[in-house]
């Protein structure tokens, strides 16, 4: 890959509005220009200009359904690139101070592939560490403790799943908005599935954001010591 190609792609991603649009699409969903404009906190005209540049740069693809056009990442390789870049360096002021409710919601609680991320994802992980449900196990990994395994079994999670016997059953994933680790791997995926099944959380139908229900706040407080009043999506 030539220097020109690298610099062109880097320039496209570096612009704050375009980076928000790309991250919003990083779970593989397809969204309209208006939805991406809302996520980035810009006008439809501004969004259209940025989307055209991302299409020309090969980072997005577009499909038409009737009169509507829907944008998605050009492939999984773009999503992997975004997550890698996002984990390097500090979180930009564009995400810390954005007036966009959609962007704030993504930072507060979202799906990161198949597990929970954002402020709530980090808080759940810290709660599990504090309560001895998991421990740090080498570089970039956690491990379930005996207490943690008993706790999961009491909650009805199948501990006969062979995935829990793998060394990487609880991987550390660097949260790109919080700059701290949240739990990923099979454990993170099973927890996310359970939170949804129990009615603690609901996924947005259009973005990666996750809503915490009243039942969920009660459960998060009981099991992880997370208090609703201490959490803010800002």
List keywords for this structure.
single chain, 234 residues, alpha+beta, Arc Repressor Mutant, subunit A, 2 domains, 4-stranded antiparallel sheet, 3-stranded antiparallel sheet, 11 helices, 11 strands, 47% helix, elongated, HTH arsR-type domain-containing protein, ArsR-like_HTH, DNA-binding transcription factor activity, WH-like_DNA-bd_sf, lead ion binding
What's the arrangement of secondary structure elements?
Elements (H helix, E strand, L loop, with lengths): L2 H12 L1 H9 L6 E2 H8 L3 H13 L3 E6 L2 E6 L2 H11 L6 H4 L4 H8 L1 E3 L2 E3 H13 L3 E3 L4 E4 L1 H9 L15 E5 L6 E3 L1 H13 L3 E3 L6 E3 L1 H11 L10
Antiparallel strand pairs: 1-3, 2-3, 4-5, 6-7, 7-8, 8-9, 10-11
Helix pairs in contact: 2-3, 3-4
Protein name: HTH arsR-type domain-containing protein
Organism: Paraburkholderia domus
GO molecular function, one term: cadmium ion sensor activity
């Amino acid at each position: 890959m030539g220097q020109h190609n690298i610099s062109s792609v880097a320039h496209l991603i570096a612009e704050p509005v375009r980076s928000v649009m790309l991250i919003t699409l990083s779970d593989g969903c397809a969204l309209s220009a208006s939805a991406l404009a809302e996520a980035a906190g810009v006008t439809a005209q501004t969004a259209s200009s940025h989307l055209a540049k991302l299409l020309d740069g090969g980072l997005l693809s577009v499909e038409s359904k009737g009169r509507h056009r829907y944008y998605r990442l050009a492939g999984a390789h773009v999503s992997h690139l975004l997550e890698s870049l996002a984990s390097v360096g500090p979180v930009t002021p564009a995400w810390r101070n954005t007036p966009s409710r959609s962007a704030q919601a993504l930072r507060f609680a979202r799906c990161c592939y198949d597990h929970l991320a954002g402020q709530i994802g980090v808080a759940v992980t810290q709660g599990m560490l504090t309560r001895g449900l998991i421990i740090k196990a080498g570089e970039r990994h956690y491990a379930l403790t005996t207490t943690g395994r008993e706790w999961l079994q009491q909650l009805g999670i199948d501990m006969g799943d062979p995935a829990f016997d793998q060394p990487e059953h609880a991987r550390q994933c660097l949260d790109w908005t919080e700059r701290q680790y949240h739990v990923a791997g099979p454990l993170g995926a099973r927890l996310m599935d359970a939170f949804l099944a129990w009615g603690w959380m609901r996924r947005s139908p259009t973005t990666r954001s996750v809503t915490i229900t009243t039942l969920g706040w009660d459960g998060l407080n009981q099991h992880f010591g997370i208090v609703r009043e201490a959490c803010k999506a800002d």
